[in-house]
Every structure is written in C-alpha cells, then in structure tokens.
Amino acid sequence: MLTAPVLALVLTCLASLVLFAALGKPAGAALHALLLKPFLSWYSFSEVLLKMAPLLLIAQGLAIGFRANVFNIGAEGQFIVGALCASALPVYFPDGDFPLMLPAMIAFGALGGTVYALIAAALRTRFGASEILVTLMLALIAVQILNYLLLGPWKDPRGFNFPQTVMFPDNAMLPILFDGTRTNISLIFALLASVFAYLMMQHHFRGYQLRTAGLAPRAALYAGFSAPRMVWLGLGLGGLAAGIAGASEVAGPLGQLQRSVTSGYGYAAIIVAYVGGLNPLGIIGSSFLISVIYIGGDSATVSAGLPVAAVEVFQGLLLFFYLMTFTLIRFRIEIDRKVPA
Question: How many angstroms separate the first and last alpha carbons of the chain?
C-alpha cells in the first residue's frame, strides 16, 4: 500500500516547511537540500547507497520480529556488539595474519549481535520481562562497553590519545562496489537479506507462524505454534542482522573501531521498518528515503543553516504522519450519536 507512505511524506514536507520558516531558515532551500541535493552528484548518491546498507539490513531483521509482536527496540546495542566482536580480530591481529580475516569478522559480528539479542529473549520467555525495556537497557550497556575498550585495552597507542583502535589491515576491509566511492558490498548483504526476508515471510511456513502470532496470538496458540519460539526467532534474527551491519560498518567506511560507530542506525531502522509497512519490499524503498534524508541533512545544515537535530525531527515527523495516515486509511472512524437512556 503506497497511499500511506506517500501521504506521510507530503505531510512531513508541509510540516517541515512551516517548522523551518518558524526557525527563520529559508524553508524552500532547506527542503531542496534535504530531498533533492543527494541526487545532484554521483558521489552524493553513492553516499546514499552507503547509508542505505545498514539501515536496510537492520530494518529487515527488526520487521520480522515486529510482525510477530516481538519489539526489539535496542538494535543499536546489537549493532555495537557486532562491531565490537568483529573488531577483536584486527585488534589482536593488526598485521592481518589471520586466515579468512574478513569472513571471520562478519561471522563474529553476526554471532555477537545474535547472542546479545537472545539475552532479551531469555528474559522474556523465562521471567516475562519486556523485551522493549531489556533491549533498550542492553543498548546502553553496549555503549559503556565500547567506551571502556576504546579508552582502555583497545586504545591505539599511536592514536594521539583519541578513543579509537588501530586501523584495520587491507584484508579486514570490505571490497568497494564502485570505483571512486565508499559504497561497499555491505549493500549486497542488505539486498540478500531483503530477498531472504521476503521469501521467509511470504513463502515459508515459519513466516506464516510469525505473522499469525502477530495478527492473532490466540489462533496461533490454538494451532500449536510455540510463542517462546517466536520470541527467540524474532529477536535472534534482528540481532543477527544488526550484528552483521555493525561488522560491516567497522570493516567498511570506518576502517577501525571508534566512538562514531554509535551512529543511531539501530534506532533509525525502526522508522525504516514501519514506514516500509513491515513489508520486505516496502522497507527497501523506505531505507532509501531515510538515507536520502541523512545525506541531504548534512547538506542542509551547511547550505540552509539548519540545526543538526532538524534531520531527526524530519524522521520523527515522517513516522508520526505514517502511523496517522495508516490508521485513518485502515480503520473507519464512527461517532456513536446515540444518547443513553
């Protein structure tokens, strides 16, 4: 259904024009920089594709759980842990003398993200703890682990006291897709994840179980579908995707582990998943849109003088208007005019 996303985008643009004007900024120029400037050069467009890869990958994993009413809100933490686990190899083998360095990094990142997400699954199924709160708190813990490692044992002794690791060797870096850009094969990982999510949710019995658990929990229970299994599967796949995205980030544009790995992809992917209608095909489009906003936002802060927070506000408005329009399109509002006797 394209009606809700299109209406949400139009309403977001209108609301943003009013907001930018109220801030005393050139509203038209700001919106032009935000939505159109990323398409005016090949390098800017390639940066959109670079941003799109982790957003698409994480959102596809989250959407599987969301459709089963398993809400993994702390994918940012699993993203960070995936980056940490992947970084361990080049940190301890800085000369690259580890066999199959890059595949091992991706595998370590995937494993780390999955295990970190399954902590919440264990607490949910064993003690009934809310996975929303648990994953959020685990995300905060992951940030502190990152800070400890970067300020302590993993700190580059030749890094001029900056909180970062050594630069990774060449065999720990993802291959570049297009010459002269930073876009790497993590985009292919994300597209393959999209194919997997589509086939699983639309053409596999396990996807049917997940969708039934979300739409009709009692019917799923009556049919013998295991609710704990759906929780483990939903959180596990979300953590797996976030972990691979984290590993790809440090093995791609960053080339080392640093504090900037906490880029907010895990939280932005929630917006991507919902604006895409929790549909694998729709999420491809929404991840591209949010990536355009990211890159356009960097341009708008310079050319139109927008505050950095304006990009986050635009994303928040987009999610708000999507949920509003989706609700009004899907449900009919009726006013009961009967007066009780």
Answer: 43
Distance CA 281, CA 199 (A): 11
Question: Domain residue spans in the chain?
Answer: 3-17+26-329
Q: Render pLDDT for 323-339 as a digit per residue (tens, 0 to 9).
A: 999 888 888 777 776 66
- Among 272, 296, 258, which residue's Cα sits nearest to residue 41? 296
Task: Summarize pLDDT for 203-238 with one digit per residue, the tens.
Answer: 898 888 888 887 777 777 778 888 899 999 999 999
Predicted model pTM: 0.93
And the tokens for 81? 């842990």
pLDDT beyond 90 at 270: yes
Give the Cα separation of 60 and 70 in Å (integer). 14
Q: How many other β-carbons are positioned within 10 Å of the β-carbon of residue 166?
A: 17
HSE toward the beta carbon, residue 194, CA cutoff 13 A? 24
With residues binned 3-state (H G I as helix, E B as strand, rest as coil), the percentages for the chain, rounded to 5, are 70, 0, 25
- Topology of the domain covering 3-17+26-329: ABC transporter involved in vitamin B12 uptake, BtuC (1.10.3470)
- Alpha-carbon distance of 169 to 255, in angstroms, equals 8
